[in-house]
Amino acid sequence: MAWVCAALLGGLGMGPLEDSGARQDVLQSSAGLRAVERSAQEHGGSSVEMFPWLTPSIQALTVAKDHTVYAGSFGMGIFRSSSRGESWSQMNSGLGDLFILSLIEAQNGAIYAGTLRAGVFRSKDRGKSWHAVNKGLRVLQVKALLAQGSVIYAGTGDGVYRLAENADLWTVVTKGLGETLVHALAMAPDNTLYAGTSGKGLLRYTAKASRWTRLRHGLVDHERLVENFIRVLTVDRNHSLYAGTFDGGVFLSRDGGLTWKPISRALPNDSIRGIVINKRGLFVATGRGIFKSVNKGQRWTPINNGLTNLATQVLADSRDGSLYVGTSSGVFRSDDGKSWVRISKGIQLPSEAPHKESGGED
Q1: What pTM was estimated for this model as a whole?
Q2: Dihedral of CA 251/61/25/182: which sign?
Q3: In the chain, where are the structural domains located?
């Protein structure tokens, strides 16, 4: 079986193609990395043919406590930087799937990666090696990861699971979600767990109730339709909950998700890819760049100076106040919340197989 990276294109789709008798499954990310998997009898192994001048789409970012930055790409695995993104090394040893959907650092410093087709992988050595941690998972598409205390939560294609950080067995967080793809997870200070889904909107779980409750009131898009597709969730220090939707903008709840109001009507794009709240304000990543608000969405200011690719995919912050954004062509960093610098040296689509790591840093 061989992988051929065909192009960097937008959209999301899947379908069969025929080429000289070989079956091709076209898989295209929302960020735009299209890969063509050719299954032909003459291929006994696995190889990759890439265009060396292209940079992969970055779908996941996390900044560790020691300021190491990890970037998950769609098709080229995981990259690591110990220099705030000035240079990167590819860290794929043991990684069973190069299509990365989520990244998180656990309390004990381990890094967890959620993949498209091979579940969760854990690294205890800063990404040098990865090991699958999938016992208990029924579906291996892992779109969301959340670290809360000593517990890791995973949002998968059939619900939410939890894992003690030193354990290897996932357990389902009660039942009731059914075969629902969970895109986002957030935990409030009172330990209420929220799940943003594709099709069932937003749900809330408390240990006391021991069940999921669907939260609908006020979550409507601009055409007054119920917004059932939640991509991003964030909770601030005042317990306010922010929900970013696929095409309905951003919503704010001040009462634990019981009622909502839209706060992004002034944004030029309703496709929300990331939400970060820090001392500088509220930052939202959209399909047309990054926007900032200092009054909880009453007014928005574009902050795209230096951001040469407005097709954002993920937004993350670090303890030093810097912001990192993953786009369909690499990573950018902002130190002041106003302008961006591209930091993609070492992140590219190489001509060799992806499991061969690039050199550069320890």
Answers
A1: 0.83
A2: negative
A3: 2-49, 58-342
